[in-house]
Amino acid sequence: MKSMKYIFRGFLLLSTLLLVRCESVLEPQIFSETAPDNLFNSLEGVQSVLYGAYANSAEMGGNDCAQQISASEIMTDVGFVTAGAIANWASNFQDFVLDGVGSSMYSVFWNEPYKAIRNAHILMENIDEANISEDSKSLIRAEARFIRALSYYKLYIRFGPTPLRTSSTQELETPKASEQEYISFIESELLEAMPNLPDPGTEKQWGRAHKGAAMGLLTKLYLNTRQWQKCADMAKDIIDLGYYELFPEYFGLFMVKNERNKELLWVRTAKADLGREANISFMNFAWPQSFASHPRTGLEFCEGCRNFATMARIRDDFWFSFHPDDTRKDLMLEEYINTNGELVDLRPPADNVRPFKYWPADDFAGPAYGNDVPDIRYADILLSRAEALNELNGPNQESIDLINDVRQRAGAPDIALNDFTSKDALNSHILDERGWEFWWEGKRREDLIRHGEFISRAKARGLPAQDHHVRHPIPQFALDANPVLEQNEGY
């Protein structure tokens, strides 16, 4: 494994912060006892590379996760941010000044997936020689494929096709793959991984890949590439597993105490730790100024919590779009008691309601919160099948029933088939429903793009959005490093 030695010296020694086993969950720890030369001599060494790949694919260090989720939402009709250091990079996105240079998030968007892909390559190229059981080899090989597919999917959603690196020995100067080549690679990786991944609920640790996660990611791939029949079929396969279900109440779905519930197909695990290797820091810019308590829930600003200068806000039009009985709006802060004991009303017309979706709990350490971040939920699977069936058949009773399953959990009134006279009419409602269900989960940008509404809605808000903005520009540092890589059209 001489060549492997140099790969590790060039990459893994740059950082010893990897994900290692801690009972039944992946948590950030310091891993330093295994040298590059003997990583594949033990299961612990192999897992250090695997967990490093998971860590890179999660994008959970520092403020990265909260910013990555927000970067999607602030380009849409859901919300925006003001003030503070975060607003400095956010303006690149929410003002549609996309240049591949002006925001620090481009480094996260591009580098972290490729780091995960690199580690997946190292695993797949060296696992056969590893001193571990054949069962472990099969599982880790499947997990590496899942991580590679997940990472390329993230790149695709952000940039479209990028260089498709499939081995660590491939030429660094590689052009973009074609659209079909890229999508087919992600699909084949997941289909090949799936048989060797454990059933959902039987994975060795929470936060590691399993069949349900791979099936969920395939459903999302098919949805966002408009492969309607495949999307409908894969979503049905997930439903037919009989394992997943909607969590009983929306308000508690995102709380630390309710983690590992059966609505969650794939999450990014978080831990409240001052080191902040894997955390969500979103509440730091959700708290309004001088927040002391919330009169409806009794929530109090916690001793040691942080309240950043940046303020995340919900747009009034989006807030008004909810049905009055819809409890999904209950995770938006509409009023609070400030430190002077005064009741402060945040409701319209000030665009000032605050997103409290990642509800603060006892699990925090300064700016770090331990809420796991749901990437794929069962509600998404139900609404994905509803959308795919409508695209295939027009308005149909099964789509209506699937949508109502999600609405009933939120206390919203049922819709009826005769409410919709065309495919477009039901599609419009599905887009609204997805907004109400998944606000500030990082899905709104891709949903608006898929429905052809991303640019037109931005223009309606007075922004200089152009058709090519459905894809981010390739970061300038990536173009500088790869002379055969072409910038995305329009930039």
Distance between the termini: 43 Å
Number of helices: 16
What is the averaged pLDDT score?
Answer: 91
Task: Summarize the biggest pleated sheet.
Answer: 3 strands, antiparallel
Strand content: 5-15%
Q: Low-confidence parts lasting 5 or more residues at pLDDT below 50?
A: 1-23, 28-35
- Helix-strand category: mainly alpha
Number of strands: 13
Give the % helix.
40-55%
Shape from CA axes? globular
H-E order: HEEHHEHHHHHHEEEHEEEEEEEHHHHHH
Numbering strands along the chain, what is their spatial order in the largest sheet? 5-8-9
C-alpha-based Rg, rounded: 22 Å
Write a brief caption for the model.
This protein is 42% helix and 10% strand.
Could you please describe the fold and organization of this structure?
This protein is mostly helical and 491 residues long. It has helices at residues 2-11, 43-58, 64-73, 84-94, 105-126, 134-159, 179-193, 211-224, 228-240, 316-320, 378-393, 397-409, 423-438, 444-450, 454-460, 476-481, and strands at residues 17-22, 25-30, 79-82, 264-268, 291-293, 311-314, 332-333, 335-338, 343-345, 354-355, 364-365, 368-369, 373-377. Helix 2 (43-58) packs antiparallel against helix 5 (105-126), helix 2 packs parallel to helix 6 and helix 7 (179-193) packs antiparallel against helix 8. The two termini are 43 Å apart. 46% of the residues are buried. Mean pLDDT is 91; it is low at 1-23 and 28-35.
